[in-house]
Amino acid sequence: LHHANPYSPSGALSSSTMSKILVALAFLTGASAFVTQVAKGPKAAALQARRSEALPYTTTELETGLAGDFGFDPLGLASAESLYPPFDTLRWYREAELQHGRVAQLAFLGFVWPQFFGTFASTDKYDFAELNPIDAFYKCPSEALIQIVIFVGALEGRRYLRCIKGDAAPGDVGLGVPGGWNPLQLNYSEEEYAEKELQEIKHCRLAMLGAIGALVQSGIGGQGIGAQVISAFAIPEFTGKAGYFFPEGL
């Protein structure tokens, strides 16, 4: 050991010893990085970094295999460890995204339907002619709200037992698929079904943005969405006056 002293007479490490240490550190760094990637678990496979389709100026290692996976996960939900399964798993997040998107599609349809197709006839007790969705909610009969809560609760309970505790795929509530309630006899090929899944998740995401926008706009404008769209195409009165090119006051 005495003649194998790695230190030089000046007290510094020799060049050969320094090279060996650097090589060893390089291997250790690569090994620790590998262990970190494996520790993420099965929620998202650790693959080679690729350019994100959602944010082209960034890279992502996200690869879930789910429809609509474009590499957008800024909060790292897909790769985080599950602490409270099944409520923080990738399966739960996809189920929640689909369910919120489907509700948002129905909500946006409800925002515009009364304006163009009419409402129920109003009575002395109930006003069904309100087109602002925010005001209409407070004018809705309490009995109707109770019925809605019971009906939605029953649907949510069935969905939880089937898709969360059960083995059904996220969003598969047994509607429109072979073996489920399929009155239209839909029977897609594997490629067509994958395309329909992508179309649905895109519509869900657009509907969630649209429903939020419609709700905020209704709160600000005080009118229903249909009335605001129609008024946007109305010709102002000042345009019919000779010599008037700007509204009064400008």
Structure description:
The structure is a single chain. The protein has six helices and two strands, in the order H-E-E-H-H-H-H-H. It is mostly helical and 250 residues long. Strands 1-2 form a two-stranded antiparallel ribbon. The longest helix has 32 residues, at 190-221. It is extended and about 65 Å long. 10% of the residues are buried.
Secondary structural class: mainly alpha
Sheet bearing the most strands, described? 2 strands, antiparallel
What's the number of extended β-strand segments? 2
Give the rounded overall mean pLDDT: 76
* SS field, number of helical segments: 6
Shape: extended
**SSE ordering:** HEEHHHHH
Amino- and carboxy-terminal Cα gap: 94 Å
Oligomer: single chain
Percent in helix = 40-55%
Alpha carbon gyration radius: 30 Å
Strands of the biggest beta sheet: in what spatial order?
A: 1-2
> What fraction of the residues are assigned to beta strands by DSSP?
under 5%
- The unreliable regions are 1-13, 18-46
Considering the chains and any ligands shown, give keywords for the structure.
two-stranded antiparallel sheet; disordered N terminus
Q: What's the quick description here?
A:
The chain has 250 residues and is mostly helical. It is built from six helices and two strands; from the N terminus they run αββααααα.
